[in-house]
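Example (one chain per record):
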Amino acid sequence: MTELNLPILDLSRLDEGPEAAAQFRDDLRAATHDVGFFYLTGTGISPELEARLHRAARDFFALPEADKLAIENVNSPHFRGYTRIGGERTQGKVDWREQIDIGPERAAVSDADAPDFARLIGPNLWPDAQPELREVVSEWHDHLSGVARRLLRAWALSLGAPESYFDEHFGEPSTLIKIVRYPGKEDPTPQQGVGAHKDSGVLTLLWVEPGKGGLQVERRDGVTGDQHWVDAPPVPGAFVVNIGELLEYATQGYLIATKHRVISPTYPDDRISVPFFFNPALDKRLPLIDLPAELAVQARGVTQDPANPIHALYGENALKSRLRAHPDVAAIHHADLVAARAAASA
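Predicted structure:
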């Protein structure tokens, strides 16, 4: 077996008695203090559900172009629906992938006095040609929401907080499921499937098509201190889990959000992945955790990027990310926000 560059944790250990649960929490804290990424097994997700999701993803991307473009995200002020290849950007550069974005199914907010981030609330765009997609995505969402909540309760205890800490401060979670296809490229050099970035929220659970590499995580060399990229290939039955900037913020850098990227596969190969993002309600602030003294002294402070500030209010983080990632949607539906932000940074 290939040596893996990320730790592997087994969620089912939480059910194996107090000692095993305590060890899991220690391992969870260590993985996200040292790396910010890990593999997670024991989630209770059945191979049958994985296969249904995989088939639904393949079926969606195999639809005629007209069916996919009928739900293109330029038709959604809420950044939902299909993004064609090259339609999303990371760090200002084009990502070579196509995808469908699916969030909580809610009515659009019509209150003119609502905060800017309320524009992210609204209905999804579903393909008429594939009604079964909605059913499998709903089932996937419910299972992974349960996994995410178990992880957050384990983190809370491992950080010296009450087990219910995150439940109390999350409100109704803001979730996002992306079903992504990375087409193969014929270029002789690695191409940007998605550029190097940190996730802006709290927690990401990533399902990757079996046997398909491409994900890379930035790690620090324990001897030289230099940063370098390591491969994070899929592990059968496991999710790749990483934390985002909000959890780094809440722990003042004790836990670390880590840069990652995806390298495009080589043509004619392609790759399917499905990230699930679990974050607080848009109107919630994630307060700082009062860490025990022995952990607080190891907190490194929050990574500061003047061009990309971290907001405690999740809605501000989410809106910032969406406007940057989808400039075409922003220009069509939110020109006033784009102009206001440009003026503020001038």
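Caption: Residues 132-158 form the longest helix (27 residues).
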